[in-house]
Amino acid sequence: MESIKAGVWQRTRGRRLLSLELSVAGIGSLTPGFTRVVLEGTALDEYRDPHPADAFKLMLPPARISAVPTPARSGSGLPQRPDDTVEPVLRAFTVRGFDPAARRLTMDVARHDHGVGIDWLAAARPGDPVSLSGMRPEWAVGAGIRDHVLIGDGTALPAISAILDGLDPDHAVSAYVATPDPADIELVAPHPKLTLHHLADITRVVDHAPASIAGGRRTQVWVAAEAAAVRDIRAHAVGVWGVDRCDLLARAYWKRGVTSTENDSVNLMAYRHAATAGADIRDPELAESIDLGGVGRDLVLEPRATPIS
Ligand SMILES: Cc1cc2nc3c(=O)[nH]c(=O)nc-3n(C[C@H](O)[C@H](O)[C@H](O)COP(=O)(O)OP(=O)(O)OC[C@H]3O[C@@H](n4cnc5c(N)ncnc54)[C@H](O)[C@@H]3O)c2cc1C
């Protein structure tokens, strides 16, 4: 794969979507801002091709009475449910750790004020059933890339740490991280060639010039945070740092003032519109356009014939 975008697209096209019924093995506070949840179950045998920062959606029951049945999927990969089933509430999280032998998957949650996910977290107990659907690829290393910039708020910290765990020790990486509490920064995984910048506000990354970019080296940039912040950082990375869009993966992990349910329903309409127009809904460039397209997502989405490299 020639670039992060091409790599993520390739993996997304080749993946088999998993629907797994698991249970909570353990839950507890990790740092002032984070809670760790460990899920377990024999269904994890189906997760055979784990990659750093893989993401999934927890299918949370509206009332915490039982696990939610997993959906069938159409040929395009969109979920299909019979009309008489209760719609689950979907919330996206990252695989922070995976132990295939123990059949355990670890996720870390950045706590915030309120939300279905946060409510679930507060009430979850070992033994609770929980279903998840995934995995969405969030990481690949472009051919020849040896320099990386990772940028994220607390919601992206589990992904950044998973990426650092898996990164070649000879690659250089600058990470810019903002966390709910200063003590949370200890959750950033070590790496021999990591330069870590702890920011109070992730949008202030634009005040920095990552060493590899200042040095004129081809650099892969990965950004995940609140949608408006990601939009600004992406514009800066392309316009000021001169990063090629193929070498940039920008993801909106949440949107201020909007629940994931509301955000996903707007995005789903945009994906349906794009699919009808002939676009490949697995194209990460399309996901970026929809995720970061702003209110209404009323942009015209032009299908592309071939993967970018
Ligand atoms: C691919 C992907 C991977 C993700 N991985 C992780 C992960 O590993 N760990 C993690 O903690 N999050 C992760 N997130 C983000 C998480 O899905 C969102 O934060 C989600 O909104 C939480 O759901 P909720 O039910 O708690 O809040 P919602 O019901 O969605 O939102 C309720 C309110 O809270 C606000 N809100 C949501 N998240 C935050 C926040 N972090 N800080 C402040 N306000 C917020 C919303 O704007 C809204 O006003 C990921 C998101 C994506 C797309």
What does this structure look like?
- The protein has 309 residues and is an alpha/beta fold.
- Helix 6 crosses helix 7.
- The C terminus is likely disordered.
- 23% of the residues lie in helices and 28% in strands.
- It has a domain of 133 residues: Translation factors (Elongation Factor Tu (Ef-tu), domain 3, Beta Barrel).
- The chain has a 7-stranded antiparallel sheet with strand order 6-3-9-1-2-8-7.
- Flavin-adenine dinucleotide binds next to strand 6, strand 8, helix 2 and strand 14.
- Flavin-adenine dinucleotide (FAD) binds next to strand 6, strand 8, helix 2 and strand 14.
In what range is the share of β-strand residues? 25-35%
Number of strands: 14
Approximate helicity band: 10-25%
Strand order, main sheet: write it out.
Answer: 6-3-9-1-2-8-7
- Which class best fits the helix and strand makeup? alpha/beta
What average pLDDT do the residues reach? 90
Q: Mind telling me the CATH superfamily name of the domain at 4-136?
A: Translation factors
* Multimeric organization: single chain
Shape summary: globular
User: SSE order, as H and E?
Assistant: HEEEEEEEEHEEHEEHEHEHH
CATH topology of the domain at 4-136: Elongation Factor Tu (Ef-tu), domain 3
CATH class of the domain at 4-136: Mainly Beta
Low-confidence stretches: 295-309
Q: Biggest sheet: strands, sense, closure?
A: 7 strands, antiparallel
C-alpha termini separation: 7 Å
**Which compounds are bound in this model?**
flavin-adenine dinucleotide
Number of helices: 7
